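Design request, C-alpha coordinates follow.
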Protein backbone atom coordinates (compact mmCIF):
# COMPACT_ATOMS: atom_id res chain seq x y z
CA UNK A 1 0.00 0.00 0.00
CA UNK A 2 1.10 3.56 -0.58
CA UNK A 3 -0.25 7.00 0.26
CA UNK A 4 0.36 10.00 -2.00
CA UNK A 5 -0.31 13.45 -0.59
CA UNK A 6 -1.88 15.44 -3.41
CA UNK A 7 -2.79 18.57 -1.47
CA UNK A 8 -1.45 19.46 1.97
CA UNK A 9 -2.74 23.03 2.17
CA UNK A 10 -5.90 24.69 3.38
CA UNK A 11 -8.62 27.13 2.38
CA UNK A 12 -6.00 29.91 2.11
CA UNK A 13 -3.65 29.20 -0.83
CA UNK A 14 0.12 29.36 -0.51
CA UNK A 15 0.93 28.94 -4.21
CA UNK A 16 2.76 25.68 -3.47
CA UNK A 17 0.29 23.65 -1.44
CA UNK A 18 -3.03 22.77 -3.02
CA UNK A 19 -6.12 22.12 -0.96
CA UNK A 20 -6.80 18.83 0.75
CA UNK A 21 -6.59 15.46 -0.97
CA UNK A 22 -4.62 12.23 -0.89
CA UNK A 23 -4.70 8.87 -2.65
CA UNK A 24 -4.48 5.52 -0.90
CA UNK A 25 -3.39 2.83 -3.35
CA UNK A 26 -2.67 -0.88 -3.50
CA UNK A 27 -1.13 -1.17 -6.94
CA UNK A 28 -0.78 -4.95 -6.84
CA UNK A 29 -4.51 -5.32 -6.27
CA UNK A 30 -5.27 -2.41 -8.64
CA UNK A 31 -7.35 -0.56 -6.07
CA UNK A 32 -7.26 3.07 -5.03
CA UNK A 33 -9.39 5.64 -3.28
CA UNK A 34 -9.16 9.43 -3.33
CA UNK A 35 -9.64 10.85 0.16
CA UNK A 36 -11.02 14.40 -0.06
CA UNK A 37 -11.04 16.46 -3.23
CA UNK A 38 -10.23 20.12 -2.65
CA UNK A 39 -9.27 22.73 -5.22
CA UNK A 40 -6.32 21.67 -7.37
CA UNK A 41 -6.61 17.97 -6.62
CA UNK A 42 -7.74 17.14 -10.16
CA UNK A 43 -4.44 18.56 -11.45
CA UNK A 44 -2.42 16.82 -8.75
CA UNK A 45 -3.95 13.49 -9.74
CA UNK A 46 -2.38 13.92 -13.17
CA UNK A 47 0.93 15.19 -11.83
CA UNK A 48 1.19 12.26 -9.42
CA UNK A 49 0.58 9.66 -12.11
CA UNK A 50 -2.49 8.30 -10.35
CA UNK A 51 -4.74 9.86 -12.99
CA UNK A 52 -8.37 10.86 -12.68
CA UNK A 53 -9.29 8.04 -15.10
CA UNK A 54 -8.10 5.55 -12.47
CA UNK A 55 -9.96 7.06 -9.51
CA UNK A 56 -13.54 5.85 -9.41
CA UNK A 57 -14.10 6.29 -5.65
CA UNK A 58 -13.90 9.42 -3.51
CA UNK A 59 -14.04 9.22 0.29
CA UNK A 60 -14.89 12.56 1.94
CA UNK A 61 -14.01 13.41 5.53
CA UNK A 62 -16.45 16.35 5.61
CA UNK A 63 -18.07 18.95 3.39
CA UNK A 64 -16.05 22.13 3.75
CA UNK A 65 -15.24 23.67 0.38
CA UNK A 66 -11.48 23.07 0.59
CA UNK A 67 -12.25 19.34 0.78
CA UNK A 68 -14.88 19.06 -1.97
CA UNK A 69 -14.22 21.86 -4.50
CA UNK A 70 -12.90 19.53 -7.24
CA UNK A 71 -15.58 16.88 -6.80
CA UNK A 72 -17.70 17.93 -9.78
CA UNK A 73 -14.63 18.79 -11.90
CA UNK A 74 -13.52 15.19 -11.28
CA UNK A 75 -16.93 13.90 -12.33
CA UNK A 76 -16.86 16.01 -15.50
CA UNK A 77 -13.32 14.95 -16.40
CA UNK A 78 -14.24 11.29 -16.01
CA UNK A 79 -17.35 11.77 -18.17
CA UNK A 80 -15.36 13.48 -20.93
CA UNK A 81 -12.72 10.73 -20.78
CA UNK A 82 -15.39 8.08 -21.31
CA UNK A 83 -15.29 6.70 -17.77
CA UNK A 84 -18.69 5.45 -16.72
CA UNK A 85 -18.65 5.25 -12.92
CA UNK A 86 -17.98 7.37 -9.84
CA UNK A 87 -18.72 6.53 -6.22
CA UNK A 88 -18.77 9.24 -3.54
CA UNK A 89 -18.65 8.08 0.08
CA UNK A 90 -18.79 10.35 3.10
CA UNK A 91 -20.47 11.30 6.36
CA UNK A 92 -24.13 12.10 6.85
CA UNK A 93 -25.29 14.77 4.41
CA UNK A 94 -23.07 13.63 1.53
CA UNK A 95 -26.03 12.71 -0.66
CA UNK A 96 -27.61 16.13 -0.11
CA UNK A 97 -24.30 17.79 -0.92
CA UNK A 98 -23.92 15.95 -4.21
CA UNK A 99 -27.57 16.47 -5.15
CA UNK A 100 -27.29 20.21 -4.47
CA UNK A 101 -24.11 20.51 -6.53
CA UNK A 102 -25.78 18.74 -9.43
CA UNK A 103 -28.79 21.02 -9.16
CA UNK A 104 -26.43 23.94 -9.82
CA UNK A 105 -24.56 22.15 -12.62
CA UNK A 106 -27.51 20.16 -13.90
CA UNK A 107 -25.95 19.36 -17.28
CA UNK A 108 -23.75 16.85 -15.43
CA UNK A 109 -26.73 14.82 -14.22
CA UNK A 110 -26.73 11.31 -15.65
CA UNK A 111 -23.36 11.69 -17.38
CA UNK A 112 -21.83 8.89 -15.31
CA UNK A 113 -23.23 6.15 -13.13
CA UNK A 114 -22.96 8.09 -9.86
CA UNK A 115 -23.33 6.21 -6.59
CA UNK A 116 -23.44 8.06 -3.25
CA UNK A 117 -23.08 6.30 0.09
CA UNK A 118 -23.07 7.69 3.62
CA UNK A 119 -20.94 6.18 6.38
CA UNK A 120 -20.22 6.94 10.03
CA UNK A 121 -18.07 5.99 13.00
CA UNK A 122 -17.98 2.29 12.17
CA UNK A 123 -16.26 -0.23 9.92
CA UNK A 124 -17.07 -0.33 6.23
CA UNK A 125 -15.57 -1.27 2.87
CA UNK A 126 -14.64 1.23 0.18
CA UNK A 127 -12.83 0.57 -3.12
CA UNK A 128 -11.70 -2.81 -1.79
CA UNK A 129 -10.22 -1.37 1.41
CA UNK A 130 -11.44 -2.17 4.91
CA UNK A 131 -11.85 1.21 6.62
CA UNK A 132 -13.02 2.39 10.02
CA UNK A 133 -14.47 5.84 10.66
CA UNK A 134 -14.08 7.92 13.80
CA UNK A 135 -15.83 11.18 14.68
CA UNK A 136 -13.47 14.13 15.02
CA UNK A 137 -13.84 17.55 16.65
CA UNK A 138 -14.44 20.11 13.95
CA UNK A 139 -16.93 22.85 13.05
CA UNK A 140 -18.81 20.44 10.76
CA UNK A 141 -19.40 16.71 11.22
CA UNK A 142 -16.12 15.14 10.17
CA UNK A 143 -14.71 11.62 10.13
CA UNK A 144 -11.17 10.37 10.54
CA UNK A 145 -10.41 7.18 8.62
CA UNK A 146 -8.21 4.21 9.48
CA UNK A 147 -6.99 1.78 6.81
CA UNK A 148 -6.09 -1.29 8.84
CA UNK A 149 -2.75 -1.02 10.62
CA UNK A 150 -1.18 0.90 7.76
CA UNK A 151 -2.63 4.40 7.66
CA UNK A 152 -4.88 6.78 9.59
CA UNK A 153 -6.00 10.18 8.34
CA UNK A 154 -7.37 12.63 10.89
CA UNK A 155 -9.42 14.78 8.55
CA UNK A 156 -9.90 18.23 10.08
CA UNK A 157 -9.91 18.13 13.86
CA UNK A 158 -8.66 19.45 17.13
CA UNK A 159 -6.02 17.21 18.68
CA UNK A 160 -7.34 14.95 21.43
CA UNK A 161 -6.34 11.63 22.96
CA UNK A 162 -9.32 9.75 21.54
CA UNK A 163 -8.24 10.49 17.99
CA UNK A 164 -4.64 9.60 18.81
CA UNK A 165 -5.82 6.32 20.32
CA UNK A 166 -7.80 5.65 17.14
CA UNK A 167 -4.48 5.63 15.24
CA UNK A 168 -2.67 3.40 17.77
CA UNK A 169 -0.58 0.73 16.05
CA UNK A 170 -0.65 2.39 12.61
CA UNK A 171 2.45 2.77 10.49
CA UNK A 172 1.52 6.32 9.50
CA UNK A 173 -0.82 8.97 10.88
CA UNK A 174 -1.51 12.07 8.78
CA UNK A 175 -2.82 14.72 11.16
CA UNK A 176 -4.15 18.24 10.78
CA UNK A 177 -1.69 20.80 12.17
CA UNK A 178 -2.97 23.98 10.62
CA UNK A 179 -1.30 26.75 12.63
CA UNK A 180 1.76 27.48 14.77
CA UNK A 181 1.40 27.84 18.53
CA UNK A 182 0.84 31.60 18.64
CA UNK A 183 -2.41 31.41 16.64
CA UNK A 184 -5.55 31.21 18.77
CA UNK A 185 -7.75 28.76 16.87
CA UNK A 186 -10.62 26.33 17.38
CA UNK A 187 -11.34 23.22 15.33
CA UNK A 188 -7.69 22.74 14.31
CA UNK A 189 -4.62 21.95 16.45
CA UNK A 190 -1.38 23.79 17.02
CA UNK A 191 1.87 21.80 17.31
CA UNK A 192 1.97 21.80 21.10
CA UNK A 193 -1.66 20.71 21.32
CA UNK A 194 -0.99 17.86 18.91
CA UNK A 195 2.19 16.80 20.68
CA UNK A 196 0.44 16.78 24.05
CA UNK A 197 -2.42 14.66 22.73
CA UNK A 198 -0.04 12.14 21.17
CA UNK A 199 2.06 11.97 24.34
CA UNK A 200 -0.94 11.61 26.64
CA UNK A 201 -2.35 8.76 24.57
CA UNK A 202 0.89 6.74 24.86
CA UNK A 203 0.16 5.25 21.48
CA UNK A 204 2.52 3.36 19.19
CA UNK A 205 2.48 5.17 15.84
CA UNK A 206 5.28 4.65 13.35
CA UNK A 207 5.35 8.12 11.83
CA UNK A 208 3.24 11.27 11.96
CA UNK A 209 2.87 13.60 8.97
CA UNK A 210 1.57 17.13 9.50
CA UNK A 211 -0.88 18.40 6.91
CA UNK A 212 -3.69 20.92 6.25
CA UNK A 213 -1.16 23.73 6.57
CA UNK A 214 -2.26 27.36 6.48
CA UNK A 215 0.09 30.10 5.15
CA UNK A 216 0.77 31.00 8.79
CA UNK A 217 3.04 27.92 9.00
CA UNK A 218 5.36 28.96 6.16
CA UNK A 219 8.92 29.50 7.34
CA UNK A 220 8.08 28.10 10.76
CA UNK A 221 8.35 24.36 10.25
CA UNK A 222 11.45 23.91 12.40
CA UNK A 223 9.84 25.87 15.21
CA UNK A 224 6.66 23.78 14.96
CA UNK A 225 8.59 20.50 15.05
CA UNK A 226 10.48 21.66 18.13
CA UNK A 227 7.17 22.41 19.84
CA UNK A 228 6.02 18.86 19.22
CA UNK A 229 9.37 17.33 20.15
CA UNK A 230 9.26 19.11 23.51
CA UNK A 231 6.35 16.91 24.57
CA UNK A 232 6.31 13.94 22.17
CA UNK A 233 9.30 11.81 21.16
CA UNK A 234 7.86 10.13 18.07
CA UNK A 235 8.84 10.52 14.42
CA UNK A 236 7.07 13.66 13.13
CA UNK A 237 7.51 15.21 9.68
CA UNK A 238 5.77 17.67 7.39
CA UNK A 239 3.77 16.34 4.47
CA UNK A 240 4.31 17.92 1.05
CA UNK A 241 2.25 17.88 -2.12
CA UNK A 242 3.13 14.89 -4.31
CA UNK A 243 5.06 13.08 -1.57
CA UNK A 244 4.46 9.30 -1.70
CA UNK A 245 4.83 7.17 1.42
CA UNK A 246 5.24 3.42 1.06
CA UNK A 247 3.50 1.35 3.73
Amino acid sequence: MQVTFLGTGSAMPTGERYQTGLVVEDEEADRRVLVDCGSGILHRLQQSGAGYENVSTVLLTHHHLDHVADLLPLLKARWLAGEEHLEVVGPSGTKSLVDDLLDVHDYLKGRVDLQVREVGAHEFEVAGFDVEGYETRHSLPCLAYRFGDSFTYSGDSEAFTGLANFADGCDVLAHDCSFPDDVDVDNHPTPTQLGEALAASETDIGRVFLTHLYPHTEGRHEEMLKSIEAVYDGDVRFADDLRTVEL
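Comment from the thread starter after seeing the answer: thanks! The chain has a mean pLDDT of 97.
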